[in-house]
Amino acid sequence: TGRDALRDVFDFDALLSEEERGWQDRAREFARTRIAPTIEEDFEAKRFRAELIPELGAAGFLGMHIRGYGCAGASAVSYGAVCAEFEAVDSGWRTFVSVQGSLAMSAIAKFGSEEQKDRWLPGMAAGETVGCFALTEPDGGSDPGAMTTTARREGDEWVIDGAKRWIGLASVADVAVVWARTEDGIGGFLVPTDTAGFTATPIDGKLAMRASIQCDIALDGVRVPDSARLPGATTLRGPFSCLNEARYGIIWGAMGAARSCLEIALERARARTVFGKSIGAFQLTQEKLATMLLEYEKGMLLALAIGRSKDAGTLSPTQISVGKLNNVREAIEIARTTRSILGGDGVTNEFPVMRHMANLEAVRTYEGTDEIHTLILGRALTGVSAFA
Ligand code: TGC
């Protein structure tokens, strides 16, 4: 099979510890048995299977890198390997794990009070409570510093007004981490989604991420007590630190989607015959396969190096930009090349290739576009910010 051929060339799994392989195996099994059987029809029907959330929690995948509060306290590499396995089936489910664990739970774990952590994290880890992370606004996501959503203090309460867009899970979430401009900076607020004035509406018409939910949020005079404000977050460093976590998962996840495509390309290269020989016997096809292999292996090694740095506590946001920019870009290229090897079949839903390609286009834009990550690297290299 394509998977065996990949393993023969390069045994990536041998670079993982037993514990990391254990997480990888459990995620692969979950994705194979619980998500894969229905993903094509779910994508087609725009169906998000919320009933899987408690199962993901019971398996320990939600907020798995967080220590305490019912979370598994796993390594960054273990978490990355899990992201790759989910995204090998569909980016929508890796996105779910990212939004819940890397964004909403991370925000609470990093910046919340003990009381906030005790109240929210155990239920979120168990998949009994769903969170979302409301940062991006309708006018664009690249410059959160320009946010117009405000939170104004009135006695012991905060009153939040504004709008958010592209917020994963908001219509099924129990709690939203809402980022808003305050008199003294940027604040994060834990808003139960049944609070008066909070409305989440799923965005329709998406041709990517159809098996997951992204929403518009309206915030009209939403009142929360002062105890709902995250005490540790006062500047953009707050939400950006959470984006680092989600971007980290994407670095691995994108390579999962790439792997699925490459496996399919390898199988087709052996099975399809033209001009009396397999298409894999043609030098043009071999060049495509070899190029895909190079980028896949480099992407996995990059993910692993970044993961090891994260576990060692030395990872920088600039390194995360290297990984996100490179791995999503190369995963899309691998999906496109696979499509060309599949010929006409590649555009049908008999194969998941166009689904991965469409999903990856969304992944390419969220959590920092190619352009933003390019300019973050440009700033790191030149010392000059193109944003200012
Ligand atoms: P800048 O002046 O560079 O920094 C402002 C403050 O933030 C700190 N900071 C970071 N901290 C941690 N990690 C990072 N990666 C950080 N980047 C910046 C910085 O140290 C400073 O802190 P402080 O305390 O000194 O004030 O800010 P800037 O406005 O010039 O930033 C420029 C830029 C482009 C890097 C930043 O705006 C950026 O990353 N933009 C892209 C944002 C993005 O990725 N948006 C998409 C989010 S996806 C989404 O919202 C949907 S949620 C997912 C879902 O629901 O599905």
TrEMBL record:
GO BP: fatty acid beta-oxidation using acyl-CoA dehydrogenase; fatty-acyl-CoA biosynthetic process
Protein name: glutaryl-CoA dehydrogenase (ETF)
Annotated TM spans: none
Enzymatic reactions: glutaryl-CoA + oxidized [electron-transfer flavoprotein] + 2 H(+) = (2E)-butenoyl-CoA + reduced [electron-transfer flavoprotein] + CO2
Pfam families named among the record's database cross-references: Acyl-CoA_dh_1, Acyl-CoA_dh_M, Acyl-CoA_dh_N
Keywords, alphabetical: FAD, Flavoprotein, Oxidoreductase, Transit peptide
Listed pathway(s): Amino-acid metabolism; tryptophan metabolism; Amino-acid metabolism; lysine degradation
Organism domain of life: Bacteria
UniProt record similarity statement: Belongs to the acyl-CoA dehydrogenase family.
Signal peptide start and end residues: none
Keyword Flavoprotein: yes
Cofactor: FAD
